[in-house]
Amino acid sequence: MSDSSVIKVTSQTSPTGKMGQKYLASGVKVSMRLWENEQPGESKPPASRDYETVGYVIQGKAELHLEGQMVLLEPGSSWVVPKDASHTYKILEPFTAVEATSPPAEVYNRDEP
After folding, report:
1. What is the CATH number of domain 34-107?
2. What is the DSSP letter of 109?
3. Is the pTM of this model over 0.70?
């Protein structure tokens, strides 16, 4: 018998992390989060995380600096940050994106500064 549970999360009532991320639906092996209307500013110090991230840009522009490379992210772009890769983002225009993390970033506060 398969799991028939359904989880629905509305972003307007989602919990928010310390970095401004909104936690969306979460399963055992993957979760989603929303970065909404992030404003331009200086890059944060590079970080590496013990999870893999894939993302999709809804609006705005940002630079992803990843292991010595720079990737321009704009509406319609998707990206991958491998587990343990050193990276940072520089927001160039008000930026909204959805990311999925595996394993879930919010478990054990993996994505907090």
Report:
1. 2.60.120.10
2. G
3. yes
Round to whole Å and give the CA distance between 17 and 93.
Answer: 21
Domains of the chain by residue range: 34-107
Question: Quick one: tokens of 99?
Answer: 């990311």
Alpha helices, DSSP H, located in the chain: none
- Confidence at residue 4, expressed as pLDDT on a 0 to 100 scale: 65
DSSP character for 51?
Answer: S
Checking 110-113 for CB contacts under 8 A at 24+ apart, the result is 110/49, 110/50, 110/51, 111/17, 111/19, 111/21, 111/33, 111/49, 111/51, 112/17, 112/18, 112/19, 113/18, 113/19, 113/47
